[in-house]
Write a structure and sequence with these properties.
With 67 residues, the protein is an all-alpha fold. The chain has four helices and no strands.
């Protein structure tokens, strides 16, 4: 199984690192700031966690409220 993934590791490792960084950054920002533009904080938490790379990007583009 691991031998099958060996050729894809140079692509997969950076994607996983980017996903983790985006996830942590978006969740920390959501927790730190009380306002979101659309939806609720609970909804954005689920979107960030379950939509992988797309969820945090959507949060920063659409959901992030005013500072």
């Amino acid at each position: 199984m691991i031998a099958d993934l060996q050729p894809y590791l140079p692509i997969l490792i950076p994607l996983v690192v980017i996903q983790i960084i985006l996830l942590i950054t978006a969740l920390l920002h959501l927790n730190k700031h009380p306002n979101v533009k659309t939806g609720s904080k609970t909804l954005w938490t689920f979107i960030i966690i379950f939509l992988n790379i797309v969820g945090p990007v959507l949060y920063f583009l659409i959901g992030r409220g005013d500072e």
